[in-house]
Design goal:
Alpha-Beta Plaits, globular, 8-stranded mixed beta sheet, FAD/NAD-bd_sf, alpha+beta, 38 strands, TrmE/GcvT-like, FAD-dependent oxidoreductase, 17 helices, FAO_M, D-Amino Acid Oxidase, Chain A, domain 2
């Protein structure tokens, strides 16, 4: 499609001619960027797009990815009128079947979540389900969740329509040309190299689908994904089959069914798949088909014959197996590479590339043109990637689990089980001996809760109060009323040092970090649009040495952001020193009484004030003690050399027996921080939010010398005022739970969504932090009061709203 001769330069080079690459090209052209070249090694759609089943379903797992599908729907509805080429889209609706009480409960919560995006969803009785889809068997059916605006389309037709829309505006699409290398200079893309010559470029987009990992490696960009075998079956024509029935998805039967040209297609997200091409996918291979495996697939097909009895008498016309790329965490990769400017990735779509692709291309085009994403998508950020996630053996295990879990119930707090344990704290054995039940984050084994003697150390998942609820509540109250100790060793630690370290850190920070040695400063790092790129604390160790504390899953993102802002002439280095130090948080009203006899340092309020950080003796060694909190109580974070961590744990544990010291897990830490409305990057705040909206204006030092990145944009926000704010909520009814993404109503009108939530054991109800949008710039009082309710489990529950923390609103307890 288009002339074969390569141009010497282009503003944007897109690599990959599937639905995502062509969508990116089309939307760039619609924004007026027509100096774009799309290169496809084989022919358009020849990767995985050609065999996509064509489902368009809005029930994605996060608020942001549902917004991407909303953009896709706009494309499906409007593209043909622009290009004259049909997408084949038909609005049929989708029905998610509930074949157990637990699955029906999941549907209720899913309905809550999607309504926060304005998505229409109807919980249906069994009779209503059979009315909408008369081919279903009622055996074991408890109801369904119906999405009337869902549909299906043709992956090939949509791709060709997007390509036509792009080329008609001047984009060049060249097939049969592979990219052999990505050219870079000074941390920035400069072009691509092909067998037929180089193309100079300002931007490069990796839309290479299941080749994304190998292609990313050419530029030193980690793109963890793995192709897996993925099946569907198409029957022979079935006489009298109704047309355009709703697509049926049955999680407990690991399958979906849709009618297609007078036949039925049955697709599978079954456990027991396998990795394909893990040692490298052939570069020149398109339209890949994998061998049939009826021994594997047969039992799942037989289960669907019971759900859709008409299948029993239908012959099979096609038994298809093709590769699809999946990622370790089940979220796709969409955005700019952390360490390579202007290199964008859109890959690893976990078999939802067709329904997400048109929207993802739209997002990516806006991102490139405007310099920021139009949708807040921290879950797709490439900075979340851990180095080990590109390891072949890790991917072979973890990514298979991604597919295995696709159609299982998505339980709150569900933990992955494969490729573990990997990264462990120096205190792993100590916490294990204390009864830890571990979860995993960014490869780290972390004590999420502690099982008392005689209690099974395992998760029993539920949408009600889980089996660990009372044990985590006891840990929570130990810190509120006594003292607890949390192993926080997994938190990221960046050592920043050099002559210009102060200059660099002050430039990226909203707060003023140029204070005295031995102080810790809480701050945000912003982008040029005033969006929050990082939420960190910075401890000044010496005149030219600082320690930045970050989250386990955000440390790579924060490291990349900081390195980007070190000028070529500045003397400043950054090193990730996470593994060199253990960290313990000793927190609670009795923290001082417990720690004081263990050190010669004076821990009194006057001698060791809040925000102070210094090296002290403890036991037989020395630690860095910082008086700070993430749980809202008096306490110290202790940074301990890894080789001494067990000794320090033992000394504190032995002394703690007189104070009722409890080991405390991350679930309790989360419930404690929620009561204090402490923010968490990637959950409550991220690059689409600014400090004024997020209630973090107190960290902004407007008049500090030199200003800070994003200051002008933030000043403009301050001048005009904000229409959205992050608000803390407490459900008035103590029984229901909140998880995330529940819709928030004010006077019966949808005004926002819950960003993160946990049960507030001390406050006596579920607590959430939620984004609320006002119809215009209104006083702060509009965001508070008793006019709010939150929908959870299918019912609306009144909630108290506050812009100040509902627990210890003046923050007196940490400073006692």
């Amino acid at each position: 499609m288009g002339a074969r001769e390569l141009p010497a330069r282009a503003r944007v080079v897109i690599v990959g001619g599937g639905i995502i690459g062509t969508s990116t090209a089309y939307h760039l052209a619609c924004r007026g960027w027509t100096d774009v070249v799309l290169l496809e090694r084989n022919t358009l759609t020849s990767g995985t797009t050609w065999h996509a089943a064509g489902l368009v379903t809005q029930a994605r797992g996060t608020w942001g990815t549902r917004e991407v599908v909303q953009r896709s729907l706009e494309v499906f509805h409007n593209l043909e009128s622009d290009t004259g080429f049909s997408t084949g889209f038909v609005q049929t609706g989708t029905m998610n079947l509930a074949t157990s009480p637990e699955r029906l409960e999941e549907m209720r919560h899913l309905a809550d979540s999607v309504r926060a995006n304005g998505i229409e969803a109807e919980l249906c009785s069994v009779d209503r389900t059979l009315e909408l889809h008369p081919l279903l068997s009622a055996d074991g059916l408890h109801g369904s969740l119906y999405f009337p605006k869902d549909g299906r389309g043709s992956s090939t037709d949509t791709t060709m329509s997007l390509a036509r829309g792009a080329t008609s505006r001047g984009v060049r699409i060249i097939e049969g040309v592979g990219v052999e290398d990505v050219l870079t200079s000074n941390g920035r893309v400069t072009g691509v190299r092909t067998a037929e010559g180089d193309i100079e470029a300002e931007y490069v987009v990796n839309a290479t689908g299941m080749w994304g990992r190998e292609f990313g490696a050419k530029a030193g960009v980690d793109v963890p994904l793995q192709a897996l075998a993925h099946y569907y079956v198409v029957t022979e024509a079935i006489e009298g089959l109704p047309r355009n029935l709703p697509t049926v998805k049955s999680g407990d039967e690991y399958s979906y069914v849709k009618d297609e040209a007078g036949a039925l297609m049955v697709g599978f997200f079954e456990p027991g798949s396998y990795a394909w091409g893990s040692r490298g996918i052939p570069d020149n291979q398109g339209f890949v088909q994998l061998p049939e495996d009826w021994d594997h697939l047969g039992p799942f097909y037989e289960r669907m014959m019971e759900r859709v009895p008409i299948l029993a008498d239908a012959g099979i016309r096609l038994h298809f197996c093709g590769p699809e790329s999946f990622t370790p965490d089940g979220q796709y990769h969409l955005g700019e590479a952390p360490y390579l400017r202007n290199y964008f990735v859109a890959a690893g779509f976990n078999s939802v590339g067709f329904l997400s692709g048109p929207g993802a291309g739209s997002v990516l085009a806006d991102w490139i043109v405007d310099g920021r994403s139009p949708i807040d998508l921290p879950e797709t950020d490439l900075g979340r990637t851990q180095r080990h996630e590109t390891n072949r053996r890790f991917l072979e295990q973890r990514v298979v689990e991604s597919l295995d879990l696709s159609y299982e119930i998505h339980w709150p707090f569900q933990q992955r089980s494969s490729a573990r344990p990997l990264r462990v704290s120096p205190l792993y054995e100590r916490t294990e001996s204390a009864g830890a039940v571990f979860g995993e984050l960014a490869g780290w084994e972390r004590a999420n809760w502690y099982a008392p003697s005689g209690v099974k150390r395992k998760y029993e998942y539920s949408f009600q109060r889980p089996n660990w609820f009372e044990h985590s509540a006891a840990e929570h109250e130990a810190i509120r009323n006594g003292v607890g100790m949390i192993d926080t060793s997994s938190f990221g630690k960046l050592l920043v040092q050099g002559r210009d370290a102060v200059q660099v850190l002050n430039r990226v920070s909203t707060n003023d970090i140029d204070g005295e040695v031995g102080r810790i400063t809480y701050t945000q790092w912003l982008n040029g649009h005033a969006g929050i790129e990082a939420d960190v604390t910075i401890t000044r160790l010496s005149d030219d040495q600082f320690l930045v504390l970050s989250g386990p899953a955000t440390v790579n993102h924060d490291l990349a952001h900081l390195r980007r802002h070190i000028g070529g002439e500045e003397f400043c280095t950054v090193a990730d020193v996470t593994g060199t130090m253990a960290m313990l948080a000793v927190m609670g009203p009795d923290a001082r009484r417990l720690l004081q006899p263990l050190t010669d340092a004076d821990l009194s309020a006057g001698a060791f004030e809040f925000g102070a950080s210094r090296e002290i003796d403890l036991g037989f060694g020395f630690v860095r003690a910082t008086r700070v909190t993430y749980v809202g109580e008096l306490g110290w974070e202790l940074l301990v050399p890894s080789e001494m961590a067990r000794h320090v744990w033992d000394v504190i544990t032995e002394a703690g027996s007189d104070f009722g010291l409890r080991p405390v897990g991350y679930h309790a830490m989360n419930s404690l921080r929620m009561e204090k409305a402490y923010r968490s990057w990637g959950h409550d705040i991220s690059a689409g939010d600014n400090p004024i909206e997020a209630g973090l204006s107190f960290t902004v030092r407007w008049d500090k010398p030199g200003g800070f990145v994003g200051r002008d944009a933030l000043a403009a926000v301050k001048e005009t005022g904000v229409r959205r704010r992050l608000v803390q909520f407490l459900l008035d009814d103590p029984e229901p739970l909140l998880f995330h993404d529940e819709p928030i109503y004010r006077d019966g009108e949808l005004v926002g969504r819950v960003a993160s939530a946990m049960y507030g054991h001390h406050l006596g109800g579920a607590v959430g932090l939620g984004w609320v949008v006002a119809p215009e710039v209104l006083p702060r009082g509009w965001y508070e009061g008793e006019d709010f309710s939150i929908e959870t489990g299918g019912r609306r529950v009144r909630a108290t709203a506050s812009l100040r923390p509902l627990y210890d609103s003046k923050s007196e307890r940490p400073k006692s």
